[in-house]
């Protein structure tokens, strides 16, 4: 029997599969799936003791690694981790769910949103039921990690357009945070015995010493209070797990979550906003060559007060690289790119002293290698072909959902994707609606400048001129 370490769980979950396998349902005739469904349905019944939990987990991981990313397989796998109320397994379940939602939520089976939401709510309900067990048995590290995972889960569902699930994850965050705040004397908790037929796949800790953990008052009655709560949680995560990206992602979510439009600007792009202090920036840059965690923390705190100081995010990422926190550096870049894709006008705006929101060096930091297509980028012909396949197999609604779920890319990519959507409407027999979309696209295209169409190209030209000087 294969022994799985925690790393093996994520390796199996995130194993690359062909696109068609990622999105397809696991076959009802698959022997592993039949056995998993039969055994999981007996969890908690009188025959529970006859179930080989270890084997069920192995089979589920095998399916995810080789056959499909079907969410139903993940739900069953998580149930085997949630059922016993073991703190370490509950935390692993939360981490697996976060990784799954981050990588496969939109494209994986089931395609029906109602079904997907219902399965997710089952997982959430089991986390609710297990909160008390987690609180009693978790170590300080586990107590600190769980709220961060749940907050990040809420962010992912919110970003994917599932507000109901995001709200449920927020409620879970509050529940687990509240249980953490209940004072309990330090106790020694022996690891619970496990039946011979269902040995744990996670190496159990023989003795867990429960210690005091930070107490956070969760305030969510208005946007400002919720922002402060998220920033406090992010601060704790960054302090205790500085080499893990979740805290840094959560901090940027808190900073930018309520910014939905670009600041007002003149025709030349100048805004009334003041640039970040040049003296402080110069001080940070002088100390960068010998950067330590104290400097990094100062930079991160400055970012909270200056939401459009993108040069500061680039600086923070460079410091992270110097300190060996490569995953954090990539996460910071990813969050900045996501924010700029959401509000692309920010790329060309200026502070009131005409300094750009994004300096040339920061634009170079954010710009991917142009010699290769970014992950997920497709040629226009591919988009038409796959969209037509979706239209034939699943109908217009699923096709439009597929197009909306593609990576945003450059403005021209988004424009062309809208054109493909209009084509699909026309092919589906909705000629009048398609005509309206064609007209809108034509009017938009007639008023677009080169900087709107190809901002990355202009950034490359600017870089060439800067280098030539």
UniProtKB/TrEMBL annotation:
List, alphabetically, the InterPro entries matched: ImpA_N, T6SS-assoc_VCA0119
Q: Which domain of life is it from?
A: Bacteria
Domain ImpA N-terminal spans what residues?
26-115
Q: Name one Pfam family in it.
A: ImpA_N
Q: Which PANTHER family match?
A: TYPE VI SECRETION SYSTEM DUF2094 AND IMPA-RELATED DOMAIN PROTEIN, TYPE VI SECRETION SYSTEM PROTEIN TSSA
NCBIfam families cross-referenced by the UniProt entry = VI_chp_7 (TIGR03362)
Instruction: Name it.
Output: Type VI secretion system protein TssA
Task: Report the source organism.
Answer: Salmonella enterica
């Amino acid at each position: 029997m294969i022994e799985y370490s925690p790393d093996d769980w994520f390796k199996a979950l995130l194993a690359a599969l062909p696109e068609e396998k990622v999105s397809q349902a696991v076959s009802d005739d698959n022997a592993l799936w039949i056995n998993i469904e039969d055994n999981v349905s007996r969890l908690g019944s009188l025959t529970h003791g006859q179930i080989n939990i270890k084997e069920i987990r192995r089979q589920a991981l095998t399916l995810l690694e080789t056959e499909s990313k079907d969410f139903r397989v993940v739900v069953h796998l998580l149930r085997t981790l949630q059922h016993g109320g073991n703190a370490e397994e509950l935390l692993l379940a939360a981490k697996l769910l976060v990784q799954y939602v981050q990588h496969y939520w939109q494209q994986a089976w089931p395609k029906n949103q109602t079904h997907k939401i219902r399965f997710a709510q089952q997982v959430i309900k089991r986390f609710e039921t297990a909160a008390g067990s987690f609180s009693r048995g978790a170590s300080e590290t586990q107590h600190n990690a769980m709220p961060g995972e749940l907050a990040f889960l809420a962010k992912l569902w919110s970003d994917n357009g599932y507000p109901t699930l995001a709200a449920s994850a927020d409620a879970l965050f509050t529940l687990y945070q509240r249980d953490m705040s209940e004072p309990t004397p330090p106790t020694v908790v022996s690891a619970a015995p496990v039946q011979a037929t269902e040995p744990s796949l996670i190496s159990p800790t023989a003795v867990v010493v429960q210690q005091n953990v930070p107490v956070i008052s969760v305030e969510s009655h208005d946007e400002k209070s919720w922002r402060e709560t998220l920033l406090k949680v992010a601060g704790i995560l960054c302090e205790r797990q500085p080499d893990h990206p979740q805290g840094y992602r959560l901090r940027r979510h808190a900073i930018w979550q309520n910014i939905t439009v670009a600041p007002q600007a003149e025709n030349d792009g100048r805004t009334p906003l003041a640039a970040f202090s040049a003296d402080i920036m110069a001080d940070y840059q002088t100390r960068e060559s010998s950067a330590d965690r104290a400097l990094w923390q100062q930079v991160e705190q400055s970012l909270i007060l200056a939401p459009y100081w993108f040069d500061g995010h680039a600086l923070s990422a460079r410091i992270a690289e110097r300190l060996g926190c490569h995953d954090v550096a990539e996460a910071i870049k990813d969050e900045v790119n996501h924010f700029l894709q959401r509000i692309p006008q920010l790329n060309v705006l200026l502070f009131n002293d005409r300094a750009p929101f994004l300096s040339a060096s920061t634009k170079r930091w954010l710009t991917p290698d142009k010699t290769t297509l970014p992950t997920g980028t497709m040629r226009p012909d591919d988009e038409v072909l796959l969209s037509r396949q979706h239209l034939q197999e699943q109908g217009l609604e699923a096709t439009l959902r597929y197009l909306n779920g593609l990576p945003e890319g450059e403005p021209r990519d988004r424009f062309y994707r809208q054109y493909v959507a209009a084509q699909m409407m026309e092919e589906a027999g909705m000629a009048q609606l398609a005509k309206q979309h064609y007209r809108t696209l034509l009017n938009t295209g007639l008023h677009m400048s080169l900087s709107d169409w190809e901002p990355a190209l202009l950034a490359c030209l600017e870089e060439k001129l800067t280098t030539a000087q």
